[in-house]
Each structure stands twice: as C-alpha cells, then as structure tokens.
C-alpha cells in the first residue's frame, strides 16, 4: 500500500487503509489490526455496518520531509480464531515536500573589493543560498 502525504497535514487527520480479506465468518474473521511501532501513526480498527472491521491510520505527530522522507510500516490483520491467524502488508508512506524552509545564505555578510579599472560585466562575487 502506498500513501503520499504532504508534510503540512494536520495531526488528527485520518487515512483509510485497505481491508484485509478473510473468508471465514463469525469470530474467525478479522477482529483487529495492529501497526508496527512508529512515532507518527497509530492504527484504529472500526466496525462497518455489515460487521466487517477496517483499519485507519491517524496522524499523531507532525511529519517533516527533511527529517524523514518516507516511512515503511507493517500492518497486521488478526482474526479471532484459536489460535489466531494473521496476515501482513507493508504500508509505505511518502512524505510530500511543501515549501516550508526559506533559503539561507552561507554567510550573513559578504565583502568584496573591486578594482576601479575592472571591465564592465565582470563577476564581482558569487553567493549561494
């Protein structure tokens, strides 16, 4: 599963995930979802009107593309059998960059000396930001 999420998304935003397929019925069908430990997303299991359960990720901590451009999480579906059976899938999250950082010069002040007989259109100084 691939989610592309802008780093500007507010905490509390919900991201629906694909439902696991399980052809059993009753308590032997999917009962719960878990997600691998991470700093940004817990998974919440909800109930549909037809009795099936579905997972949603909830953004709990803001994303920052400059610190972590992508995350790879393991989503696990667990059934209610004895013993319980499970299935996993990878949820890959690409953090989409927004223009949240202003350019910075390498120095705060640049000083140059220019000979008075320099030709027109001469390079005086090169700066980088």
TrEMBL record:
Domain Cadherin: from-to ranges: 5-105
Record GO cellular component, one term: plasma membrane
| UniProt cross-references to SUPFAM superfamilies, sorted A to Z | Cadherin-like
Question: What membrane topology does the annotation report for this chain?
Answer: Single-pass membrane protein
Q: What is an example of a GO molecular function annotated in this UniProt entry?
A: calcium ion binding
**Pfam families the record matches:** Cadherin
Q: Does this UniProt record's set of keywords contain RNA-binding?
A: no
Which UniProt keyword terms apply here? Calcium, Glycoprotein, Membrane, Repeat, Transmembrane, Transmembrane helix
Any single GO BP term: homophilic cell adhesion via plasma membrane adhesion molecules
Q: Where in the cell is it found?
A: Membrane
In terms of PROSITE patterns, this protein maps to: CADHERIN_1 (PS00232), CADHERIN_2 (PS50268)
What the entry lists under Gene3D superfamilies is as follows: Cadherins (2.60.40.60)
Protein name per UniProt: Cadherin domain-containing protein
| The organism's taxonomic lineage, starting at the top | Eukaryota, Metazoa, Chordata, Craniata, Vertebrata
């Amino acid at each position: 599963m691939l989610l592309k999420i802008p780093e500007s998304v507010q905490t509390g935003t919900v991201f629906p995930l694909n439902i696991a397929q399980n052809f059993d019925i009753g308590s032997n069908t999917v009962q719960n979802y878990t997600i691998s430990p991470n700093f940004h997303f817990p998974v919440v299991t909800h109930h549909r009107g037809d009795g099936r359960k579905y997972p949603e990720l909830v953004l709990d901590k803001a994303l920052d593309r400059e610190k972590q451009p992508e995350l790879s999480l393991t989503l696990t579906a667990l059934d209610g059998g004895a013993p319980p059976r499970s299935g996993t899938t990878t949820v890959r999250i690409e953090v989409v960059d927004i223009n949240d950082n202003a350019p910075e010069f390498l120095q705060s002040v640049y000083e140059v000396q220019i000979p008075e007989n320099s030709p027109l259109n001469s390079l005086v100084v090169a700066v980088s930001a």
